[in-house]
Amino acid sequence: MPEELRLQEESVERHQINIYLSDRISLHRRLPERRNPLCMEKKYENYDKFPTTSVIIAFYNEAWSTLLRTVYSVLETSPDMLLEEVILVDDYSDREHLKERLATELSSLPKVRLLRANKREGLVRARLLGASVAKGDVLTFLDCHCECHEGWLEPLLERIYEEESAVVCPVIDVITWDTFEYLGNAGEPQIGGFDWRLVFTWHVVPERERIRMKSPIDVIRSPTMAGGLFAVSKKYFEYLGSYDTGMEVWGGENIEFSFRIWQCGGSLEIHPCSHVGHVFPKKAPYSRNKALANSVRAAEVWMDEYKELYYHRNPHARLEPYGDVTDRRDLRIKLRCKDFRWFLDTVYPELHVPEDRPGFFGMLQNKGLKEYCFDYNPSSENQDFDHHVTLYHCHGMGQNQFFEYTSQNEIRYNTQQPESCVSVATGSDSLLMELCKDTPPEEQKFILQEDGSIFHVQTKKCVQAERKPLSDIFMPLLRDCTNSENQKWFFKERMA
């Protein structure tokens, strides 16, 4: 047993997935039923008129069993008359099993083509390499560690048959990276969103969308897509300008494409009857080192004046080289795309738009302990301070030290979604983060006074910077109001 555990740990270290276990699971397994029962009752009219699809799977140094299981899954769950081909794009892998052995394995499979990049291209350009030779009417992009559920393809193609400008995503079900258990999707599907760092987020379906839907299995409109799995008409993909080829490697392309779909007249949807299992690795096989530049390109082309909200939360992004976006701006003009205000009002009205009033956002720095700022790390491993506001050396990078004081007297942490507000629990003197409300409750109201003191309305105390006894931890705590410098605060947008 210890030897088996060691081999599993080695495979996780190498692939970020428990490949030792994956290699012992059939390449042809069928996933248990997870769809809404109404999906099984659905009859597809005009089936013979549906567009055909090319399924494009880009990979880089992927493990043998996860890659092959993806391919077999597509072949074994897709109706023959709808599946034109499966195109695998090797993004310049250097592992031996992906060379002659892979070519030999795939040569015996019907409808499967293998393309090899001549240099490392990254996910965006590798996918475009596959799209450039695709023969199907629809391009269906999948990641290289997926398993398709029975009946996954027909709903996507039917929707594009009905509306060519619809870009349709399957419900992405979780397959665990360590045990390969298929968890399915708990409850109803979720929609994609983003926070003001342009990081993708998941959310429940809003009430306005539930009202619009005539049935639980109607398509669900989504502001953004996760990016790895979606189907789009090839003609419409080319009309929209395909991917932004100025984007490097991986990250941010899903947000940019989502903005472009909506602002330029299309719709982005999730189909509840299409399910694809996806193994989410411990960390992505593609490097995220170019994701920042990709996000800057998205902000510069599509967000108009709202790009400043992004830059406020990513001060270092202002200095990031992002290349030439002239052709993308020209594309926006050519397609007569709507502005970002329209996107926020019409597509994503649930997203809170920060006020970012000058002098009331950024690092919340203490005057007495001059090196220390408000800090919130919701993923902290220190459970004693999970959901607590602490004080940490000011770093000027935004992120976990970015706060906003609003005209409703809230101290908001709107770097992530859903947004949190500084609050005080009954009988406590420490500051907690709790979900913001439409109307701020008394425990979330603070008055930033002219002298820099922060007065908590409910307790009538002031926020003071203190070092916890017998520790190196500094925290903001509620204390009786004095004229102490440790009770004086100011916002600073970035480090000097």
Overview of the structural elements:
Strand 1, helix 4 (64-77) and strand 2 (83-90) form a beta-alpha-beta unit. The chain has three domains: 2-279, Alpha-Beta Complex (Spore Coat Polysaccharide Biosynthesis Protein SpsA, Chain A), CATH 3.90.550.10; 291-347, Helicase, Ruva Protein, domain 3; 361-492, Trefoil (Acidic Fibroblast Growth Factor, subunit A) (Trefoil). Helices cover 25% and strands 24% of the residues. Helix 10 (253-263) runs parallel beside helix 11. With 496 residues, the chain is an alpha+beta fold. Mean pLDDT is 92; it is low at 380-385.
How would you summarize what this structure contains?
The protein has three domains: 2-279, Spore Coat Polysaccharide Biosynthesis Protein SpsA, Chain A (Alpha-Beta Complex), CATH 3.90.550; 291-347, Orthogonal Bundle (Helicase, Ruva Protein, domain 3); 361-492, Trefoil (Trefoil (Acidic Fibroblast Growth Factor, subunit A)). It has 496 residues and is an alpha+beta fold.
